[in-house]
Task: structure prediction
Amino acid sequence: MKSIMVIMTFLFFAGYSNNTTISGYTSDTNYGLVFFDGNWNDALEKAKDESKLIFLELHASWCNVCKRLKENTFTDREAGDLYNANFINMALDGEKGEGKVISSKTSTDNQCTL
Result:
């Protein structure tokens, strides 16, 4: 139920998107979600230091929904303002490295998870 609410929230923000595309999960623009550039343990430490939760996006290179989230929702100014202020945002490939390890510990059946 919780994951459905998160997905619905992102779909809501996607409707208000400016349709700016980005090549990766970090952007040169001054808006949108800013994703932490480091490993999981560093993200945990930063979240603890800043008293924030971690927003984790697990994606796969073949996932079209993930690509649309990256291009439309994660570049949205309002979503960026909300998530950057309240979360340490982290995006990992659910099929590689740390992302694969974390993905194996989630209770979902899909590689793509918010």
Observations:
- The beta strands are 53-59, 87-93.
